[in-house]
Structures are given as C-alpha cells and as structure tokens.
Amino acid sequence: MTRVVALAAGLLIAVPVFGASPDPDPKNLAIPPEEVSRARELVRKLGSEVYREREEAHAELLKMGRVARTALLEGAASDPDPEVRFRCSRLLPKAGADDLKARLDTFLADTEGKFEHDLPGLKQFRKVVGTDEKARTLFVEIVKTPYNVELLQALDRGPTDGGRAVADRRNLMYGNLQNRNIGGRFQPPQPINLPDIACLLFAETFVPSKEIPRSGMWSYVTGATFIQQPSSVSAINTPGAAHSDGYKRIVSAWMETRDDVQDLNQLSYIAGQQLKSFPQSLPLLKKIVNTEGVYGYAKGQALMYLVQTRGKEEIPFLKTLLNNDTMVTTVWFGQNGNQPIQHQCLLRDVALAMLLSQTNQMLQDYGFKFPQGQIPNQQNIGYGNYAFETDEARTAAMVKFGFWQLKQEFRDPNAKDPEPKKEEGKKDAPPVPQPPIPK
Fold first, then answer.
1. Cβ count near 112 (within 10 Å)
2. How far apart are CA 220 and CA 89, in angstroms?
3. Which of 271, 296, 304, 373 is the most buried (most CB within 10 A)?
C-alpha cells in the first residue's frame, strides 16, 4: 500500500494544496493538534453503520487534504474495521500529493537553503548537488516522477532497500527503451528524460554496487547504459541546457564511485570520449586498467585514451603494466591453408608499444609484428593491430627496453620520468615501485 501511495503522490503532484505555506521554514507546515484530532474523529466515522455518515466523513477528509494525512495513515495501517482501512487507502493518495506539494513549495521558497526539509533523498542530494537554485530546480523535476520518489524513499531506508530499488528502476527504464508488444499492440521505444537518469545515477552514487541485485535478462544494465541517452549527452555537451549544471555535478560524483566490473567494462569508451571533459575521467580510466575482472579490451581501450590525453606524463604508469599478462585481444594475421594465424596481444604488449611511441622508438625494432598492410601510427598508438608471435619474442622485447632504460640513465643520471600532473581533487599517492628489468 505504501508503494501505491508514493506513486499516486507523484502522479497527483499538481493538485492544489490545502494549507501550503509560502514561508520557507518547514515548521510552518506543522498540523495543529485540533485538526489532527478532528481528522481522527472523521476516520472513525468512516466505519459508521450509517451510510450517509460514512460518505460525509469521506468527503470531509477529502477536503482536508494533507491535514488529514496522519490520521489516514493510522487508519489504513491499523484500524480493525476493513471498511475504514479501505476508505483510508483510497483517500491517502490525494493527502500524500497535497503534503508533498506543500513541502516542495516550502523547499523552493527557501532560496538560501537555511532550513532542513523533510523530502526523500534531499539530505544526500544536497551533499552531491548543492543547495543553490540550479540544484533545487533539478530536485523538484526529479520528484515529479512517482518512480523517482519511490527510489529516493528506498534510498533513505538504507543500502539494502536502496539496492533493490536501483535494480528495479534500471530494469523499468531499460524496458522502456525496447520494442514491446503489450496486449498485441506494438509499443515503440520511449526516450528516457534527464531527471530520471539523474535520479538513477544519484542513487547509484550512494548505494554500494554489492548491494544492487543482478538477475534476469538485463543483469548487465547499469547507469552507464543511460548516461549515453540523448537527453544525457545533450545536458553534458550543451552549455546552458536545462538542468545541465546540476546534472554534471551528479555525473562527477557518480564517476568517482564506480567500482563495479559491469560498469567499468562499459565505461572505457564513455570515460575516454563522452565524459573526457570531466576531471574524474582520468582516474576512472586508470581504475578500469587496474581493476581485476575488467575485460582486456576495455583495459586496452582505457589505456589508449589515457595516453592520448596525457602522453609522456603516463610513462610511469605504463611501466607498472609491463608484467601484466591480461589478454587484451587476439590479432588476426591471415590464414595458413584453413588454419587462421592469430596471436594474442597482452596488456603488457600494449603498455610497451605505447612506451616506445612516447619515447620515439619504433615498434618494429622490438620485434612487434603487424597484419599485412597494417602499420600502426607511431604518434597515436592504439591496440589490436600488433602482437608478438612468440613468448620468446615478447621476453626479448622487454629485455631490450630494460637495457634502453639503463642507457638513458647512463647518458643522463639526473633524467627522470616526467612528473604526472596532479589530478583535480586527488591527494598525492605513494610512489609505485617500478617492475624489475626482465632477465
């Protein structure tokens, strides 16, 4: 029944408010005790043996709106008379809608953010998005959708309820993106609006990924799926777009908290391209490379975007990967009769290729092989179009690079790897030990 009330409250948010106050102080929304007592007496009359008395009490409680909400909640939850419980449950949506509208009006009147407001998810929302007008207007748009209200209410109850609600919301939103056959009628995909995406990403920011159940045919769906929707892309890339500033604050916080392998698998391209204007994109790309369980191709892609953005500044990080045997992809070199000629490209191979590029060396000189007619651009090394034919060739290349490093140190004992730029909002991390030179 609580779910029904929450949904109806959102759907009826435009209903005129009984007793709403323009004062920004939510204390002024308190219901006088005499009005509460009157509402409780009317609730009791809903169980009268006289039909006319029941109808009159019902009509009066409907007029009272939010003022009667407490008495209606009590009646719906615990009155022994089934007639009273039924009538209270019918009256609660209107009372809930009036109450939510009154609290939202008071919240908007508090332009300086001086007061605490009893709205679902608001305390955490303020931590992420702020208290200015842009944050307030985005919050109001979010709670206009009943399913978002339900998600925020679950978030307030804790990570277990919040995680289940996030999973349900993902499935519902993703279902709207599919071609559906409902009762024999074709339902085309429905675009997802920005407030709905903002609410989901906001909830994912606060709910640990381990608390979000994964089951069913769409278990791979995460917030990364929806951040690529047109409304999201427009808000990120169009200055002055509606709710753009508030939404970007949510995206920034969401990027910082990504640790789920399913998310990270999808985020290498998104972080490297669509979200590259966010300072959080660089540490996110490194997290993708370093997180165990992330697909090799996603690691390779993340590393490519990282080096394309920062170049020589990522030489120290590249060196930490020279012992990483994660398979990035299989490179096809043609066929020998009916047998394909294929070789694995490992993450350490990609790191070495990029180190050679950044130090102005040729991949061919280190034994890398390429498919016929495909010579990588030395100035913009990617992955997937080069490999070593044998482990012996890979080991020889690593040894050669180790000796090259020694020569550089002999030539200039004071030479150091370039200092990486400090990532915005990040504290200095302890130095990462360099891998030993292969023997």
1. 8
2. 37
3. 271
- CA-to-CA separations, 130 to 27, 196, 377, 427, in angstroms, rounded: 22, 18, 45, 23
Q: Which helix (H) or strand (E) holds 282?
A: helix 281-290
pLDDT band with cut points at 50, 70 and 90 for residue 362:
very high
CA distances from 173 to 3, 48, 243 (A): 18, 44, 20
CA–CA distance, 394 with 267 (Å, rounded to integer): 29
Integer Cα distance of 55 and 47 in angstroms: 10
Angle at CA 432, nearest 5°, toward 428 and 433?
150
Query: Smallest Cα–Cα separation from 142: which of 165, 162, 119?
Result: 119
- 124 vs 57, 114, 206, 318, 332, CA distance in Å? 40, 16, 8, 37, 50
- For the residues of 43-96, what is the DSSP string, one character each? HHHTT-SSHHHHHHHHHHHHHHGGGGHHHHHHHHHH-S-HHHHHHHHHHHHHHH
* Helix (H/G/I), strand (E/B), else coil: 112: coil
The chain-wide mean pLDDT, for the chain, equals 87
* CA–CA dist 288, 326 (Å, integer): 13
CA distances from 379 to 31, 210, 312, 353, 363 (A): 70, 41, 12, 11, 11
DSSP of 210-261:
GGS---STTTT--HHHHTTSHHHHHHHHSTT-TTHHHHHHHHHHHHHT---H
Angle value at C-alpha 21, between 15 and 22, nearest 5 degrees = 105
Q: Calculate mean pLDDT across residues 306-318.
A: 95
Is 178 in a helix, a strand, or coil? coil
Query: Mean pLDDT across the stretch 293-308?
Result: 95
Nearest-angstrom CA–CA distance, 378 and 375: 9
